[in-house]
Structures are given as C-alpha cells and as structure tokens.
Design a protein that fits this description.
about 400 residues; single chain; three-stranded antiparallel sheet; alpha/beta; TIM Barrel; binds flavin mononucleotide
Length: about 400
C-alpha cells in the first residue's frame, strides 16, 4: 500500500518524517532530538559573540584542550568512534563514511587532527592561495539563525602555500585529506592558470584529491572561470600537469572541480561537457550562493557574500540532479549545500551525489551532527536490505525513475 502511494504521489518531507517517526524513527530531526549534548550549552555562549571571533575563540580553546594528555583519545571516543562505518570506495580511495568536512573551515591546515577526531569520512582543507592574503575586511561572516544559514565574504583569507604545506607536513595525516586550491585576489583572471598550476604542484603529494575552486563568490571575477572556453583551457592544463606529476611521483591524485549553485541548466550542461571532455575526475556541487531565496525580509540577507546552510539546500540539490543527468555516473559528484540531517543527505545522494560534505550544519548543531547523519544513512541502508550505501542509493534512484515513468502515464 505504501509503495503505491509512493509511486503515484510522492509524500512531502513532513509526511515522510511522520512515517519514519511512526516506524521507529530512524531519522529523527536534529532539531527535535531528545537528549541535549554539550554543544547545546556552548552554542548560546558562542552565538553571543561576533561570528568570526567566536569561531576563532572556539578553535583556539579546542587547540589548547587538544594538547592535554588524553584529550585526543577522549574526543575520538566521544565523537569519532561513535560514527558508524559506512564505507564508500570511489576515485581509487576508501572513505570510511560518506560525510566529509567542506572547504573553508580549516583554510590553513591548522586544525586537521582535531577535526578528524570528530569522525568525518575525510576533510577538505583550504581554500589555499599561492601567496598569503588577508581576505576581505571584517565583519565578513554573519549568522542568520532563524534560517539556519551563514553569509560569508571571507575572500580567501589564507596563510599562503608555504605555511599551509609546513602545517600539513608537521605531523602525520590524521585521515584522507582533500586540498582545495584557489587564486590570489590580485592575480588577474588571465593569469589565474599560473596560480592553479603552482598550487597543484605544491599540494599534489599531500592530497588524496585536489579541488579546483572556481566558484567562490568573494574573489572578484573568479566565477568567470566557469565559463566554457576559460574552463576547458583551465581543466585541460591542470590535467596535463596532473599527468606529469603522476609520472614524476608514481602517484595519481584525482582532480575535482568545485562549482557554484547559481548556474543555468545550459551552464551546467557546458560544465558537464568540459569535465567529460577533459577527463576531470570529480565535481563538487556546490559552493555558496549569491541568491537570497525567501529571505528578502531579513536585514542580514542584504549583506554581500555567499549564503550557505538551509536556504541553499534546494539550489544545491537541483545542480546535483542536473549534473547527474549529464554525467550519468561517469564522473563522481560530491554533494554539498544545506545538508542538516540524514534525510537531506539521502536526498543529495539520490539526486546524484556519491559523497557528501557539510559546513554550516556543524556550526549550528555541533560535532555530533556527523554521527547523526552517518547513523541515519546506515539505518536506511539496513532497511533497504542492500549490502552497501552505493547499492541502496542505486536502488532508490531506480525506484525514482520508475515513479517518474508511472507519473507520466
Ligand atoms: C565561512 C565559510 C567559508 C567558506 N570558505 C570556503 C573556501 O575557502 N573554499 C570553498 O571552496 N568553499 C568555502 N565555503 C563553502 C563551503 O565549503 C560549502 O560549499 C558551502 O558552505 C555549502 O555547504 P553548507 O551549506 O553545508 O555550509 C565556505 C563556507 C563558509 C560558510
């Protein structure tokens, strides 16, 4: 009976939640979870401070705390080890679970051991630029609490490549690390390729994959690199360099392209074509948006910058779905944008993502969000009767196609 209803009239998100709750609730909404954790107490204090200052303070305190004897083990036991194993094998890499940390939180590779202990499947560090730069003037990070969103115009504040690589090399790597590279603000767009090539060479041997960021809205002109001719030239040159580096080091490091959510269907089509033509290894969809969907009344919504979190969710999922239609699984997609719980994560996977990343949900929900999402996904796999996450997602995608066909009759 349930199946019939699903085929002819897909339930709304609210109905799905109610059904799941009635069936034992394997996907509880994080906002209505029964037991508060320590972050529920810390968050109100942090949120009293300016967003960037509280972020700095938190990380400074955590870094200090993490040096205490036994602290790393405690964090690992309290967070990391509670995250179930839900492996994904893709890009020639083994991810212990599909939820990674999105770029921007650890731009200088300073916090990776602490972040890895929270149980992420991997971390994406950066964006790192070749030369140090301060980024935009403060304030440049804003919380839109009601919308569970952030607006940032950080502008690639970066300690620069030399410091980044020194931080990376100082200690053994705690987990798989993607490294996100960008260009300096004062590098003219015509010379952008030089910055990306420099950065690729510098991080190549340290990275599980390298993410090429052409989608930050806060570096003037950067998004123009997503336009077809410029993009193909950039991707081709990076692939040529990758081949040379792979030969020199005997190591193939995949390249991923990170794109914006503010793209027309036609632009997504061009990007997919370029990615396929150049043999790029993966696409990360998406970065923050310049749009302010349904937020016209919010004063902070008028701040310049990229919007992340809940309002970005449908925009990012739309890009993933369109991209998947073109790529058809030939190039993996890392889905990011507004994921708050296992249901959002599942929607992104069924839309076409193979792996997922979060950022804003970590700020609003704290570190337990990783466990909650991965556990919710693991429960879904168990309920599906499929042996792996990939198989469960493939079955759900096939069922969705059936639904569309049924609906069309
Ligand atoms: C404060 C902040 C800084 C960010 N910095 C970067 C960055 O340096 N490079 C990048 O590719 N994305 C950056 N992002 C975008 C995130 O990686 C991610 O794509 C986006 O926030 C959407 O995910 P979310 O809704 O889960 O936050 C940043 C996001 C935020 C909120």
């Amino acid at each position: 009976m349930d199946v019939r209803i699903t085929l002819t009239d897909p339930p709304s998100a609210k109905q799905r939640r109610a059904r799941l709750a009635a069936a034992g609730g394997y996907n509880r909404s994080p906002m209505r979870r029964p037991h508060p954790d320590f972050y529920d107490f810390v968050r109100p204090l942090l949120f009293r401070l300016d967003a960037e200052r509280s972020h700095r303070l938190l990380f400074a305190l955590l870094r200090l705390g993490f040096r205490l004897p036994g602290a790393a083990t405690w964090v690992d036991r309290r967070f990391g080890r509670r995250v179930p194993q839900l492996p994904v094998d893709i890009l020639g890499l083994h991810f212990p679970n599909p939820v990674g940390l999105a770029a921007g939180l650890d731009k200088d590779a300073r916090h990776m051991h602490m972040l890895a202990a929270l149980g992420f499947g991997w971390l994406e560090l950066g964006t790192v630029t070749p030369r140090p730069q301060a980024g935009n003037e403060k304030p440049r990070l804003f919380r839109l609490v009601k919308q569970r969103a952030l607006i940032n115009r950080m502008g690639f504040n970066s300690a620069g490549m030399a410091a980044f690589v020194a931080n990376l090399s100082a200690r053994p790597k705690p987990c798989l690390l993607g490294i996100n590279i960008g260009k300096n603000r004062d590098t003219p767009i015509e010379r952008a390729l030089d910055d990306y090539l420099y950065a690729l060479r510098a991080v190549y041997i340290h990275a599980a994959y390298v993410a090429v960021n052409v989608s930050s809205p806060n570096t003037p002109g950067l998004r123009a690199l997503q336009e077809q001719e410029r993009l193909e030239e950039l991707l081709q040159a990076l692939k040529t360099e990758q081949a040379a580096l792979a030969r020199a080091h005997g190591l193939y490091v995949p390249l991923a392209l990170k794109i914006a959510p503010d793209l027309s269907d036609e632009q997504i089509g061009f990007i997919a074509q370029s990615v396929l033509a150049c043999g790029f290894d993966a696409v990360i969809a998406t970065n923050t948006t310049l749009a302010r969907p349904g937020m016209e009344a919010d004063l902070l919504a008028h701040e310049t910058g990229g919007l992340s979190g809940r309002p970005l969710k449908p925009l990012a999922t739309r890009v993933i779905a369109r991209l998947y239609r073109y790529l058809q699984g030939r190039v993996p997609i890392i889905g990011v944008g507004g994921i708050e719980d296992a249901e959002d994560a599942w929607d992104k996977l069924v839309a076409g993502a193979d792996l997922l990343q979060i950022y804003t949900a970590l700020i609003y929900q704290g570190p337990r969000v990783v466990e909650r999402i991965v556990r919710g996904l693991a429960d879904r796999v168990a309920h599906s009767g499929q042996p792996t996450l990939a198989a469960a997602v493939a079955a759900a995608r096939a069922a969705r196609i059936q639904t569309v066909r049924h609906g069309a009759r």
